[in-house]
Fold this sequence. Notes:
Layout: H1 2-7, H2 9-33, H3 52-69, H4 73-92, H5 99-102, H6 105-120, H7 127-130
Helix pairs in contact: 2-3, 2-6, 3-4, 4-6
Amino acid sequence: MGATLSNLRTHALSLLRIFTGLLFLEHGTGKFFGFPAVEMFKGFDVTPSLSPLWFSGVLEIVGGLFLILGLFTRPVAFIMSGFMAAAYFMVHEPKDFFPVRNGGELAILFCFVCLYLVASGAGAWSIDHALGKEK
């Protein structure tokens, strides 16, 4: 059974990368387009230009798309990991030390999933793999 599951490893990695990218994309579109509607952004008609919220939305949309496609996966995942670490310490950690109480679990999880993608690459279903950047 271990050998069978090992053969699926690169496909599972691709699924992890794709769904991580989709979640980032969803956060960015919520900030810019109000879809999906997010309670904390309902007061905004438009995300204020060049605000920290605007920059985070840009990173989430662009980074999410690159991760979905598996294009430049390692450098994009590295940037997104740092972005999530910064988001955690700037937004969540000042509220409370414990992530379950400060709402920062998702930022921490994103940070470490992206670090895993930096180390592991894009997986079989990616542009990086198709271009020969991943073996």
